[in-house]
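Review form for a predicted model. The reviewer records the input and the model, then writes brief findings.
Reviewer: anonymous (R2)
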Amino acid sequence: MKKLIAISEQITERINQFIEDLEKNGSTLDKTVYDMKKRINIAKEHVATAIAGEQTLKRTYQMVVDKVKMWDEIAKTSIEDGDHEQASEANQHKEQLIQRAQDLEQRIQTQENIVTELKTELLEFYLRLKKSSEHVESLSHRKKQAETRAAFYKVLAEFDLHDDSNAFQQAEEELKAAEEEAKRWEERSRKTTVKRETPKKENKLDEALAALKNEILGDSQND
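Model under review:
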């Protein structure tokens, strides 16, 4: 019994410590997950902004490319018409737009790299959030399990920790007292029986002696 009590106490103590640690870390974990969710939402906005910037650059690039084609057509038409001055002017516009388009190409490439990088980081952060959420859920489940075990072993421990040895000792003392009382009454009963039987035996002995005396005296008188 003492061994069971000791084991129950140890298990209960460990479970209580585990629950206490979970409660201390639980609020921190919840705050961490909540903060991560907020940051993901903000990060999504930044990624969306980067994607919008990329799309804007591509639209601008397409407009510039279209203008390059337009000025190229004007230059060709002007040469065909013999308008070399207009052709020269058209070519100048075309060259400027080509440089603009080349600059946009570089900016688009850089922006695409940024968007890819942000998407990758956002995905990794999301996976971390998912893992953290699952970890918190697992800890919460384990906490409930630990609380159930703690309540269970507490019930057993409280029963075992009750001084049942006193109860057994008291029961044994009551049994002993009852046996002693029974013995006393048994002895008194036997003494009473002996007292009642003794006079009867003495009367029978007297009668036997009297009969023997009469027999002897009777025979003597006859002689």
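Findings: The helical segments are 2-81, 84-161, 164-222.
Further findings: The chain has two domains: 2-161, 163-223.
Recommendation: see findings above.
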